[in-house]
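For reproducibility, we list the full input for the calcium ion complex.
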Amino acid sequence: MTQPRAGRLRAGDAAARGHGKIPGCSDPSRSMAVLIVEDERRVRSFLERGLSEEGHGVRSCSAGPAAERALSEGGIDAVLLDWMLPGESGIELLRRWRARGDVTPVIMLTARDAVEDRVAALDAGADDYLVKPFSFEELLARLRAVLRRVSGRASPVLRCGDLALDPATHRVTRAGVEVRLTAREFALLQFLLQHAGEVVSRSRIAAAVWEHDFDTFSNVVEVYVRYLRAKIDEPFGRPLLHTVRGAGYVLREEP
Ligand code: CA
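The corresponding predicted structure, in tokenized form, follows.
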């Protein structure tokens, strides 16, 4: 089976080429780059056409490997992800993206509308869920809502010394060098930065980052602190994450 290559259109391109709506009706600054992952040709071209007409940049593909490539190239604002795909299912793809810390908003598209299917999709990390057949207007409204929620989450960059974490882009840098973290390492660092200068106990960390109590997660916290140190401290010489014996950890610059 041949799979169409992902299109190369970026957000704004469609509007710039005059395929957008009448000026004043679509705001090019609000246009998004949407990745469509859908193996049903008819649905795919319906979405491609509709989204381009709205002034959005569209890339599309029909299966997991091309979706992975498109996502890894970056610049995608939202993904419309079909559940039933040849090879790996949409939900399997989504679980993997989330497990590696990819937070790109995803709306699942599917004909399955049982409550347990919706729950499975949301649990896998979907931001929303649309049951086929759906109206294009509803799809647009949900896309807008998802992006509003995501931008609403944006908060100021957290810093300690030369370490910076941007909650909006999920980027972490130390001394200007990008540091790649897993989703859990990121959550741990975010918590420590929110409490920079303050000693936080392992049980507080476990409760905040794992939403579990201390007993089950005491070792896990230690293991993740080690992972985090190997990435944010060791390569840079000057440690920021310190152990306070018998009390917990503190993130701070020490002379
Ligand atoms: Ca399908």
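The chain has two domains: 13-150, 158-251. Confidence is low (pLDDT under 50) at residues 1-29. Both points were considered when choosing residues for closer inspection.
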